[in-house]
Amino acid sequence: MAQAAAVAKPPAPPRRRRTSATPRRLPYLLIAPAALLMLGFIAYPVVSVFYYSLRDYNPTKPWRNGYAGFGNFVQILTDDPQFWDTLTFSAQWVSVEVGLQLLFGLALALIVNQTFAGRALGRALVFSPWAVSGVLTSAIWVLLYNSQTGITRYLADVGIGSYGTSWLSDTSTVFPAAVVADLWRGVPFFAILILADLQSVSRDLYEAAEVDGASRLQQFWHITLPHLKDAIVLSTLLRAVWEFNNVDLLYTLTGGGPAGETTTLPLYIANTSVESHDFGYASALTTVAFVILLFCSIVYLRLSKFGGESK
User: Fold this and answer.
1) Buried/exposed 171-195: b ≥16 CB within 10 Å, e otherwise
2) CB under 8 Å to 144, separation ≥6 — which residues?
3) CA-CA distance, 129 to 190, in Å (whole number)?
4) Which is more confident, 245 or 201?
5) Buried-most residue among 40, 127, 128, 211 (CB within 10 A)?
6) What pTM did the predictor assign?
7) Per residue in 136-177, pLDDT tens?
8) Residues 183 and 97: beta-carbon distance below 8 Å
9) What is the pLDDT, as a whole number, of residue 1?
10) DSSP 39
11) Residues 211-243: tens digit of each pLDDT
12) CA-CA distance, 57 to 183, in Å (whole number)?
């Protein structure tokens, strides 16, 4: 009986080994240095801007430094006409640039999406300006607009305009000249994103539309555009933020002139901080610009129903 009971007793389950938590934490440990660096280089400046926006801080006039409360913001909104002028120009600059870049980028994406000889070379030429830095782009267009060796001289040679004309120093031509320079670099951004989304449109939809007798325009309006909705919304939002914060191109081309005609709000902030050394007031301007961008971005995403189903 004792032997039978011993034989019938089920074997004890094997002891489970304790797994170390280190393999699970290893990915987080590996990215921790980069995360800490990003936190230091991004979070600290942002917090500093909010802190100095509530203070009067000018290293060249230390006797005036101190807590200002909301005084800087009150001055911005009630007693700084240059703020409203630069904000108005910034809105004009963003609207014109983003609208034209979207229009030309969409057209280029539709063209290079077609099958034709040399398509790979055509795509490379279309996208190449996006690889050029903003400062280098500005330098290229400064040379092109040079009154002695640039476009205006060659136009004067054929009887259009006069010699010595500078489009960047004339208040009537500086804005379109700056717009064209920024279009050259900004259009490829839209073309790249839209072309990537066009590649995912099923050809079956177009074939079915052709069978139903839909024209090319109807196919574009009812198939292509609805499919590109999210790509267009995202690209226009990103580009609007970048154009609003654009400093390098306008600073190199015009320096905000002539007579302040091309001074955007970020350029005004840069001049206030770097040239006037009024970092407290510049921080308050930056905070106001941040709030404006955040509010406009939220409203834009809500109105465009980004990520929702297209009807």
Assistant:
1) eeebbebbeebbbebbbbbbbbbbb
2) 150, 151
3) 12
4) 245
5) 127
6) 0.82
7) 888 888 888 888 877 888 887 777 777 777 788 888 888 999
8) yes
9) 46
10) I
11) 888 888 888 888 888 888 888 998 899 999 999
12) 38
Spatial distance between the Cα atoms of 219 and 210, rounded to a whole number of angstroms = 8
The one-letter amino acid at 235: S
Q: Is the pLDDT of residue 311 over 70?
A: no
Question: How is residue 140 written in tokens?
Answer: 């290229």
Residue for token digits 């009887």?
Answer: 159
Query: What is the arithmetic mean of pLDDT over 5-33?
Result: 67
Amino acid present at 25: R
> How far is CA 123 from each of CA 18, 120, 130, 187, 196, rounded to the nearest angstrom?
56, 5, 12, 13, 12
Please give the single-letter amino acid code of residue 99: G
DSSP class of 254: T
| Backbone dihedral angles phi then psi of residue 220, each to the nearest 5 degrees | -65, -40
Q: Calculate the alpha carbon distances from 193 to 6, 131, 200, 293 in Å.
A: 73, 14, 12, 22
Q: Which two tokens stand for residue 216?
A: 């090319």
Note the residue count of the chain.
311
The rounded radius of gyration (Å) of the Cα atoms in the chain is 29
Say which residues have a Cβ less than 8 Å from residue 178's Cβ, sequence separation at least 6.
168, 249, 250, 253, 254, 262
